[in-house]
Specification:
- It is built from 15 helices and 19 strands.
- The chain is an alpha+beta fold.
- It has 2 domains: about 90 residues, Penicillin-binding protein 2a (Domain 2) (Alpha-Beta Complex); about 300 residues, DD-peptidase/beta-lactamase superfamily (Beta-lactamase, 3-Layer(aba) Sandwich).
- The strands form 7 sheets. The chain has a 5-stranded antiparallel beta sheet with strand order 8-7-19-18-17, sandwiched between helices. A 4-stranded mixed beta sheet has the order 5-4-3-6, with no helix packed on it.
- Strand 4 and strand 5 form a beta hairpin.
- Helix 6 runs antiparallel to helix 15, helix 8 crosses helix 10 and helix 10 packs across helix 11.
- The chain is globular and about 100 Å long.
- About 5% of the residues have low confidence.
- It binds zinc ion.
- The site of zinc ion (ZN) has 6 residues, from helix 10.
């Protein structure tokens, strides 16, 4: 009897010890999974770092093989040209990891040659010639062109191929030279939000580019929209709230209303659509969700009109009210219109292997509009350029576009938007330009888009 008691007691002790060991292992595994990438990247880790510098030899190239970043004898080197360095700084990142969406931060593990399952095995002596090179879809020259066109103004320029998803141009301003890190805090106005990649991580009031969302909803939901005649006296009062146009537009068709961006006509359209339909189309076309650019999440542009009525609903359909838009998401919407209603998610890594190709083709495709709706909207965007923006200002681009001049209040100049695409099989490029407090979309953002797209054509970029 006593023996049995003793045995039970011993078993219990063994069991308790086993439980402690197992739970310890579980905690370790959980912590390892969660934190390992942080631990391994800690500069005290002698497997990967030497004197605080990465030992891995690696190079980041642009799509044409231009070196944007490399490690030479353990030290970091950026492109030899200062303008190139500034133009691609947000994409590549700085050496302190301040730009969280940059390639250096987002793909840090891949770049240092470490992963969760295999650890740093590639740094064992027999693998000491391991290189973790990476080719981006960006064209550094096109980024330089966009950087120069922005000319020091705050904002962003994005261009991508709407058939393959490859981002050719991704520029955000203000920027700085990563080889010569400035004292950002000393000049807060000049470097306002300098670590933010505005294409990926900003959300701005869209203003009239949002009429392309309201238009898609109208094409699908309002009967006889093509034969309707709108009448604009220059303003319209809805429940005490006034919607205004810069001057009276008179009688207008739907197509003409988009071309001259008549707020009164679009107020009427928004009220007829109602909050639920407008909300549905905002979400279909990319609002209230983020896109993943090779896993890098974009900021979310928000539209919430479920409780909006009267003047609020009217202003929401015109891209004001509480609407915000992320530039990359809006560019992808433009790509979706161009691509027969199927949006290909933009990406920044060149895919050379089957796995990543398949990943893009399956998860990166989404039908956001019917083919007919996309075609009709595209025709209207083409008409905007021919009838109002001036074909001569965009020679040979076969441009389909919409301007936006987004009121931001506080006595500040509006944000200037220009978004659209080239309707050319040989250059299937969609784009977005935002210039913060830049003023008129057509006068300010339009010429920037033209410069960059003309340069893409000159260089034969697709
Ligand atoms: Zn009007």
């Amino acid at each position: 009897m006593n023996d049995l008691k003793e045995l039970t007691k011993r078993s219990m002790v063994v069991l308790i010890f086993s439980l402690i060991i197992i739970s310890g292992l579980l905690v370790f595994t959980a912590k390892y999974t969660k934190n390992a990438s942080l631990w391994v990247k800690h500069p005290a880790n002698k497997h990967l770092y030497s004197n605080g510098q990465l030992m891995a030899e690696r190079t980041i190239y642009d799509r044409n093989g231009k070196v944007l970043f490399e490690t030479v004898d353990g030290s970091r080197k950026y492109n030899e040209n200062e303008t190139v360095r500034k133009a691609v700084m947000h994409a590549i990142g700085d050496s302190d990891g301040n730009v969280v969406t940059s390639v250096q931060v987002a793909f840090g593990e891949r770049l240092v040659g470490w992963d969760l399952l295999n650890g740093a095995y590639r740094f064992n002596k027999q693998f000491n010639n391991y290189r973790s090179d990476m080719t981006l879809t960006l064209d550094a020259e096109l980024c330089v062109e966009a950087f120069k066109a922005l000319n020091g103004r705050k904002g962003t320029v994005g261009v991508y191929n709407y058939k393959t998803g490859e981002i050719l141009c991704m520029v955000s301003s203000p920027t700085f030279d990563p080889e010569n890190q400035p004292d950002v805090e000393a000049k807060p106005k000049k470097y306002e939000g300098v670590y933010i990649n505005r294409l990926l991580s900003a959300a701005y009031t869209p203003g009239s580019v949002f009429k392309l969302v309201t238009s898609a909803a109208a094409i699908d939901n309002l009967k006889n929209i093509d034969t309707r005649v709108f009448h604009c006296e220059g303003e319209m009062t809805i429940n005490g709230e006034t919607v205004t146009c810069p001057s009276p537009h008179g009688d207008l068709s739907f197509e003409e209303a988009l071309a001259v961006s008549c707020n009164v006509a679009f107020a009427e359209i928004s009220l007829e659509l109602g909050p639920d339909t407008l909300q549905k189309y905002a979400e279909k076309t990319g609002f209230n969700s983020s896109l993943k650019v090779n896993g890098i999440k974009t900021a979310i542009g928000k539209v919430n009109v479920s409780d909006a009525q009267g003047g609020d609903l009217a202003w929401a359909g015109i891209g004001q009210y509480s609407d915000t838009a992320n530039p990359l998401n809006f560019m992808a919407y433009m790509g979706g219109v161009a691509n027969g209603g199927v949006r290909i998610t933009p990406r920044i890594l060149k895919s050379n292997d089957i796995a990543s190709f398949l990943a893009t083709s399956i998860s990166g495709r989404k039908r956001i509009l019917s083919e007919e709706t996309a075609a009709k909207l595209g025709e209207m965007m083409r008409n905007n350029v021919i009838e109002v923006y001036g074909e001569n200002n965009y020679k040979g681009l076969e441009l389909c576009a919409k301007t936006g001049t987004a009121e931001v209040g506080g006595g500040k100049e509006p944000h200037a938007w220009f978004a659209g695409y080239m309707n050319r099989d040989d250059f299937p490029l969609a784009f977005v330009v935002v210039i913060e407090n830049g003023g008129s979309g057509s006068k300010v953002a339009g010429p920037v888009a033209n410069k960059v797209l003309q340069s893409a054509v000159r260089q034969g970029d697709v």
